[in-house]
Specification:
This is SpoIIAA-like. The chain is α/β, with parallel strands linked by helices and 154 residues long. The protein contains five helices and six strands, in the order E-E-E-H-E-H-E-H-E-H-H.
């Protein structure tokens, strides 16, 4: 399921950050490019969240392959303000992260993901390639498995 050839609606675009939606896949994609300034990061994430909620999107993909480091202040903001709102208001079922090229950025994302696990009612996973994440999105067995365990029926 490659993304090329599919309709792409651009929600937010700067040289450092692109937020777009693939309506046919119910997929929101955030693509970082190098260092993303705080104001750009927060505006892009806010627009992504609003779009995911308004369009009742099911999948959220963060492609940080070429992304930069998220500042400590932005990490706190994302975990304390953004994550609770997205978790309680969206229809997101799965969130995938494409691993950054550098170890420091990956460790930051892993830490943020660990903190968000208690907030988000959906599955999150790291992938090396976008194609692997897209295949995971369409794997319905992992959706029902996560829903079963997130509802407390152990």
């Amino acid at each position: 399921m490659p993304l090329s050839g599919l309709r792409q609606d651009i929600i937010y675009s700067t040289p450092e950050l692109l937020v777009c939606v693939y309506p046919s896949l119910q997929l929101l994609v955030i693509q970082a490019n190098g260092f993303v300034p705080s104001a750009v990061y927060r505006e892009g994430l806010t627009r992504a969240t609003d779009t995911a909620i308004e369009q009742r999107l099911l999948y959220w993909l963060v492609n940080n392959k070429a992304g930069g480091i998220i500042t400590p202040a932005d990490q706190i903001w994302a975990n304390e303000e953004h994550a609770p709102y997205l978790g309680s208001h969206s229809c997101i079922r799965k969130m995938a992260f494409i691993e950054p090229g550098d170890l420091h950025s990956k460790l930051i994302l892993e830490d943020m993901m660990d903190k968000a696990r208690d907030i988000y009612p959906f599955a999150m996973q790291f992938f090396e390639e976008v194609q692997d994440a897209l295949e995971w999105f369409t794997d319905t067995s992992s959706i029902s498995f996560h829903q079963h365990f997130s509802t407390g029926f152990h």
